[in-house]
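Input for the complex:
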Amino acid sequence: MNRNTLRALFWEAYYQVLDNWVFRILAVLTLLPILLTFVVGLREEGIVLLFGMKRWAYADVIGPLAALSPGDQQGVVIEGLLQVVFDGLAGTFGTLFALAATAFFVPRMLEKGAADVLFQRPISRWMLYLSRYFAGLLFIAILSGLLVGGMYLGFLLVSRHNDPGVLAAGLGLIYLFALIYSFSMLVGVVTRSTVASILLAGLFFMFNGCIHQGWIALKQHEAGAELKIAEDRDDDEREESAASADDAGAASGDEDESDEPGTFVRFLFGTLEVLHYVLPKTSDSEHLVAKLRARLEPADFEESEALLAIQRFPDGLERAAESPAPPPALAELLGEPRLTLRGAHVDGTPVAYTLWRRAAQRTESRVGTRTRTRTETSTQAGERLEEALSAELARPVERASVTLGSGLAGPPLRGQAVSWTSGAAPEVESLAAVVFKGSDEGQVFTLLVTAEGELAPELLDAVRDRLATRIALDIQKAGEWYPDQLAFDAPLPFNILQSVGTSLAFAAAMLFLGWLRLRKIDF
Amino acid sequence: MSSSDLLIATRGLTKTYGKRMWKRGFRALDGVSLEIGRGSVFGLLGPNGAGKTTLIKVLMGLVTDWEGEAELFGERAGTRAVRERVGFLPEAHRLPGYLTGRQVLRLYGMLSGKEGAWIEERIPGWLERVDMGAAADRKVREYSKGMQQRIGLAQALIHEPELVFLDEPTDGVDPVGRAAVREIVRDLKQRGVTVFINSHLLMEVERMCDRVVIMDKGRILREGTVDAFTNTGGRVAFEITPVPAELERLLAGVGTDLTRTERGFELVLDQAGQDQVIDRLRAARVSIVSVSARKLTLEDAFIGLVKEQGA
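Predicted:
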């Protein structure tokens, strides 16, 4: 096959795509969210219409949702919008529409009259078949490129939000479509019917999603059971150390055989397992995109064990290499410094933030012959901080519950806050501390805020919340169990290479079967 | 004919459609053996279902799983190298409606392996020859049937093949267009291109072709020159006035198979016999209006042959 033939095939695919009326409709629909990003600016300070013609606060427009993450409302709203557009509209409806729009490529190529003209050329049937596959990919690539690129530019120019990671979503859409379209093409070449191709590919898309989600649920259930068994053993070990050998002996090794699934259920699980490995993992595409996105646009700060992250530091704050010494009275309650930021608040007040981490206290109590281990909660940690400060300052310190940051998909973090002043004029400092925990029960975090001068309580709260509300559980990691399992170095069932490899192998097998059928067709 | 002169050679070519383990299928070609040299215009004739299109499609590689031998240019039919040298206008073809006529020629030229610049250079000439210059930039879906046929013909020839199969080339084309098609075929022949025409318009075939192959029921019935098919063996028609009552006596001993017609008579005779007949008629004061060699039309010959085989 020479270069001219390849050029001709690409060129023909391009014209075929541009001529498609569904493509045109989808292109217009794609322009709508892009237009939205150019007309409505989601800026850090609020929402602006038509480059500032009208302005609103986030709370006025999105109501209670604004309270979820008061520190990074822009990030939360944009993230939510991207999820709706990419995962919901483009990832599901867009893919189905694209399948419907491209389903005729193969049946039409094989129609009498059209096939005679095309297949007489000195090109192998395999190349002609593959050219239709790439025509489909070109179809989705143009649309997703338009959608992703347009929205990225809109957010960058109008909302002043630079998130190059969003471009990864385009790759995800192409990957997802490439997997399903290979099946659609096989149906097309076997039945030579566009309608059959649309219906069966749509059904396959949904069936495939069900299989994959079912498998994830099964694995999550199994992992939960394993975790429970492990916890029980820990208890047993603890009990063994505290209770008599007889009691411990009675408590250990108790496996309930009635929990074992029956033969039919085991057969179903086995079938699910086989189908999962054979079929393409379409549901993984959005998780893979999220991971790719995280690589392209990493968080400014991450505490991986506790799944805590600060996606972006507030403007005007810089990371400091050295952390300040902890106040002597609080040293034991703060632990080790993890992050220090210095700079100025929006009103110019010099401020410093330090995030501290220590191990949570564990207390043991005996109930009869059993020993119970309790881990310090964030409220208890707050109480300890309050007590220590009250003792140091020789006056009561007020403690309040506060909400830290969260994303739309993640749970909000709750903490205990205290504030006080230190030093005497003119060297007085206003301080605030928020005690909280991440996903790891064994760790306690304290955000200590220091501002120069004696600030009004509301201003000190605002200074504190400026960073506190950006500390959130990693949405992607904390929101679901499965995405956290997916990794390049994970065991085989959750290995990204396995997921991508078997999915692409499925697509290749579909193309191969299609070619086997095509090479036997008499035109 | 030596094997190097052969353009098409088939031996015992058989193709059965729908053959399964439990099903005999339909035999479209039944042991077709054919040898065709270079530089002629061939007419491929036969009733519906005779196997004409299947034969062409086997040679073009559009049909698989055939038995026997089929070669073009000395190579197995259907290979990529062979297809580069062949042009094909299928019957009831459908060109991509989303392309313009000019784009169609560019596409198929490039798909035939030619350089873009080489194709671009030739496109205006071919558009002109098929009289599609004015409509070249309109979408194919806007074309009439005749216009599609013209562009279809151009796409079969754009890469300058050595062998061309034209399946119903004048289908849907107006008289002026048909004349243009004949002109193109004549020109191809002059350039040494071998043309294979499959058509039901036998008058067109008769006017364009040197040789004819007649097929029926998957077999070749007869192959030869057009003259061989239409020649009646020296039969001459005389139109005379008045027609003498004793015509048989007047022409006794000259020619054979004398038959009276409405305005004269016909008989089989050679040139010397023709002179004798004229002399006798003039001596009997009979006026000779016309003398013409009697030939069958290709249609007559075709129908006769097919009926004969059917019987």
